[in-house]
Amino acid sequence: MAGSEEARSFVASHSRSFLLTRRDSGAPTGHPMTLRVSSAGDLLFNTYRASAKARNLIRRPQVSCLVTTGTDDPDPRWVLVSGTAEVLDRDEGIRAWSTSTGGPAVAVRSPVVGDTVQARLADGKRIVVRLRPERVIGPIRPARGS
Amino acid sequence: MPRETIGLDPEELSAFLGAARWAVLVTGGGADPHPGGELVELALDGDRLVVWPSAGAQAAIDAEARVCVIVEEQPDYAGIKGALVHGVAVRLDDDRVAVPLDEVVSFDFARLRVNQLPSAPGS
After folding, report:
1. Which of A25, A80, A82 sits opposite B38 (nearest CB)?
2. N or C end of chain B, less CB within 10 A?
């Protein structure tokens, strides 16, 4: 993955992220996501095939991902990864997701959610999206304005 | 099956945004086709959000004023709560930017049926 060793380590150890895409109008938007990382250092997400974020990234695959300690962290940090998104076919997606790694995630810790995601990936209602990093910025501590 | 309604009501939304200190600012201006994003300090000011963007984000806003501001908290799965605000940013006299609360989508996972069960995830 592009970026410094510190950035790679940050991305590998934090699962809270926001996938940044563009709406049909071209306006920017964001989607809270649970992030996983492939063995090759690509960023992986899963989402419903019919979701707005899936439509957005298929229409315009140039996306970014902001990986963060959280907007509810009193001393937050973040990394911005930009690249090209690709929807994996079902079998490749299941394989990539099952072998991926990542930081602690609230959603992934829930067995109910995990089982549902696996079932929806298997029936094709959910897809796995791979983001190949082309540019990485951070980690950064945001400036305090007030 | 109809989709569940899990949004915050206006009072809850105001309390949630008013208590938040940090947000994700998403921008789309400039020659780079990739959306930009950064964490920014945030304040609720009546019917608008005020944020402190970096110089780079200010330049992106000058090129394309449409932005998205996201606030989210994740104490546990059932406690996931958030708001996405889409709007046209207005540069203020200083380095701050205001985004009106005209288009807001919010979510509160405590309202999900699965989280109202005795064995709810994260409970």
Report:
1. A80
2. N
CB contact (8 A) between residue B122 and residue A82: no
Joined together, the tokens standing for residue B63 give 């090129």
Q: Is the pLDDT of residue B118 over 80?
A: no
**Which residue out of B34, B54, B117 would a mutagenesis test of the A interface target, given it has the greatest number of A Cβ atoms within 10 Å?**
B34
Of A71, A84, A117, which to mutate for an interface test with B (greatest number of B Cβ within 10 Å)? A71
Condensed to tens digits (0 to 9), the pLDDT of residues B52-71 reads 999 999 999 999 999 999 99
The kind and range of the H/E element at A59 are: helix A52-59
Instruction: Name the pTM for this structure.
Output: 0.91
A118 Cα distance to chain centroid: 17
Using a CB–CB cutoff of 8 Å, tell me whether A80 touches chain B: yes
Count Cβ atoms below 10 Å from residue B106 Cβ, excluding itself.
19
Taking 3-state DSSP, the helix, strand and coil percentages for chain B, each rounded to the nearest 5, stand at 25, 40, 35
CA distances from A82 to A53, A65, A105 (A): 16, 6, 22
Minimum-distance CB partner of A22 among B21, B35, B40: B35
- The encoded tokens of residue B6 equal 């899990």
| CA dist., res. A46 & res. B68, Å (int) | 22
